[in-house]
Amino acid sequence: MVTGRRLLPTSPSIVSRSHTAASPIASRPGSPLRGRIRVPGDKSISHRALIFGLLARGETRVENLLEADDVLRTAEAARALGAGVTREAEGRWRVVGAGIGGLREPASVLDFGNAGTGSRLMMGVAGSHPITATFDGDASLRKRPMRRILDPLVRMGATVVSEAPGGRVPLSLRGPRETIPITYETPAPSAQIKSAVLLAGLNSPGITTVVERQATRDHTERMLSHFGATVSVAEEDAGRRIALVGQPDLKGTEVVVPADPSSAAFPLVAALVTPGSEVVVENVMMNPLRTGLITTLVEMGAAIEFMNRRDIGGETVADIRASYGPLKGVEVPPERAPSMIDEYPVLAVAASFAAGPTLMRGLEELRVKESDRLAAVAAGLAANGIAAEISGDDLLVHGTGGKVPGGGLVATHMDHRIAMAFLVMGLASRDPVTADDSAMIATSFPGFAAMMRELGAELS
Ligand SMILES: O=C(O)C1=C[C@@H](OP(=O)(O)O)[C@@H](O)[C@H](O)C1
Ligand SMILES: C=C(OP(=O)(O)O)C(=O)O
């Protein structure tokens, strides 16, 4: 079987673990942004397409896979666990599965780089098989909490052979001979926790149930059905109860990946705050568990239109037009957080251009992303002359009604979304904004700078 290692578009180690040589990037105010673009495939669905391809029997074909560092790491891990993974053309990938129960022990450390999703979902996969796998990542991933994944996996019979202090990577995990089905209430609104437990439940001889108090993105549930598993979702007073029948016959299939709403957020907000702009982002996934930012921007008075709504690969997509206009501050309720969890940095930037304050509530989970995003956003705003306050888990941003000073150097702390959000700010602030490092943008949106330049942005 051809494993296709040589065919990878870029080496999965493009962002090295030590990562010391920073390459700053600046954006400056200039011309309006105009044009139609298509941002890359959704990161959450891309990781899952490769993981389900690994666990299925037969061949899975993926269209429009996100070819970014995080996802390439998952492709590499799927290979190490026994899948045949080949890149056939740009965005078109073929996975020949090892099948549930058929994984092989990886010969070396699974290095997930900057990727929380890839590492945590694969822990669920490997930790439910009688193999030992070692997980590691870059300096950012090494700070992120993994006990939230290990705790349920231990209940399912896995052994944590070793772990870094505080339940972090590098860690080694050994799965049991037979995985125990459990009922698990997630301690935080996290699709990664939910997904790790469900993926582990795939190799267990019974029903694995996850209860989540707040609904989080449901790509794993949808993909389970798509690959042939029996999964039920019930809305109850306690939240959502997801029950999966273990050891199904997962069959390889086709996955078409829609455009990532979390990447679309950057050009859309850039158009809303840059005078004279009008941008259309095509094919954006409109899954309601991902559209909290759009809801919020509309409440802020944004000129946003949805066109050409249609279904692609089990998701509704639309072309979204965003046009420049005044925004007003709003209060964002905590229950909306799971549907826009990765969009708060760019929402904070939109809020800095709005008239009046914007209060974002219930942001606890932002502290455990690629950086402490609550702190990183507040510091980035302050560096650019915007008053903001953190109070408990809430963030209050004092909007300027379009008069953002800018001029700051933003510490990105190995976090792609902090870098992209503040580069958006610099397109419409009085003075340029500099992000201290552009390297991490490649983890989710490698073509970001080129695509923004295509729209007329000044980035260098
Ligand atoms: O399941 C997923 O694909 C993701 C879940 C979210 O993380 P949490 O589960 O930690 O909230 C999100 O921040 C991440 O970018 C992708
Ligand atoms: C939080 C993110 O990703 P992950 O958890 O996969 O590192 C993100 O992309 O914003």
UniProtKB/TrEMBL annotation:
PROSITE patterns: EPSP_SYNTHASE_1, EPSP_SYNTHASE_2. One of its GO terms (cellular component) is cytoplasm. It catalyses: 3-phosphoshikimate + phosphoenolpyruvate = 5-O-(1-carboxyvinyl)-3-phosphoshikimate + phosphate. Its EC number is 2.5.1.19. Transmembrane segments: none annotated. The keyword Cytoplasm applies. Pathway: Metabolic intermediate biosynthesis; chorismate biosynthesis; chorismate from D-erythrose 4-phosphate and phosphoenolpyruvate: step 6/7. Residues 28-450 form the Enolpyruvate transferase domain. The active site is at D342. Keywords: Amino-acid biosynthesis, Aromatic amino acid biosynthesis, Cytoplasm, Transferase. SUPFAM superfamilies: EPT/RTPC-like. The keyword Transferase applies. Residues 10-21 have a biased composition (Polar residues). Residues 1-35 are annotated as: Disordered. Monomer. Catalyzes the transfer of the enolpyruvyl moiety of phosphoenolpyruvate (PEP) to the 5-hydroxyl of shikimate-3-phosphate (S3P) to produce enolpyruvyl shikimate-3-phosphate and inorganic phosphate. PANTHER family: AROM/DEHYDROQUINATE SYNTHASE, PENTAFUNCTIONAL AROM POLYPEPTIDE. This is 3-phosphoshikimate 1-carboxyvinyltransferase.
